[in-house]
Amino acid sequence: MPGQGLREGKEPRYQLGLQPKGFTDGKKIGKQTVVFHNRPVVLATASVAGPKEGKGPLGRYYDIVKEDTLFGERTWEKAEARLLEEAANLAVKKANLKTQEVDYLLAGDLLNQLIASNLAAREISIPFLGLYGACATMSEALTLAAVLVDGRYGKYALAAASSHHDSAERQYRYPTEMGNQRPPTAQWTVTGAGAALVGASGEGPVITCATVGTVVDIGLKDPNDMGSAMAPAAAETIWQHFQDTGRKPEDYDLIATGDLASVGKGIALDLLKKSGFHLGRNYTDCGVMVYDPSQDVQAGASGCGCSAIVFAGYLMKELAEGRIQRLLLVATGALLSPTSYQQGESIPCIAHAVAVENQRSVKGGAGIG
Question: Which of 9, 128, 161, 365 is deepest in the core (most CB within 10 A)?
Fold first, then answer.
């Protein structure tokens, strides 16, 4: 439970720079956090967004904004695969590389059997690891890309995630043609894809550590209120990150959760406050950043593409221009499916945290490990 150790007056077991027992190379600290001593570099990112996303507050930060939701394809599912393929290829191109030079592609989406990612990987032809973390997939992909590069299992790894409003609605809820009324707690699945090329060396922000989340399920069953279901998972992972690393909220210029949107964001803040961590102006949620309230999106944005396009577009721009030195990206995911919902199951949730920092910040201040 978030904050249990703090309420009992316990100190974090491991502080910055300490080496836990059982890990002679010091690549894991605390209970759930891995440290990347070789500091993999985010060499380039790319974001491709749909028309609704392009009209939102962050529209100017996306590399490509599509004019319609089909992108010349016959189905929304094929259109989503096209999104992911374009984002992946563009990230590689921006790093002045060829796809043949990339060792791994780690990608995922919301669709059954990761079909959008599978179809995109077929065209990209990079050794492929498909991931499913629901809307937490971008943080999961970044974490595993950093693990592979830091461990010298490859020189380059491409992390990517995508979602499409219409394909997700058709699978999880109702076809968009039905025009069902949405409750205020519902979120609008982002049509977009983000990709990040992680390398062993070069210029760009570095990934210093990552906290792998545990599945948290508080018993909620409403698929139209995922923010409330995911908020405890986000709070749990953020709390554990601080416990493991010895860092505090003020050590980050920005902490960005994935897609809790307006409902879940407030719950996460309350949970962390009760645990002794007061997140202030250095906290936001990607789900409240993608759209303007006037765009009729109820509580805000969701989907694998939510944190993917915000990170690959806006947040990387902020890092590159020095307005952010240290970022903690905490993508969140509701691990439900149509099958689990039909069987009356509650919604298991997950959140993974990845610390991305400017190299000059790491060299000039206290790092981890």
Answer: 161
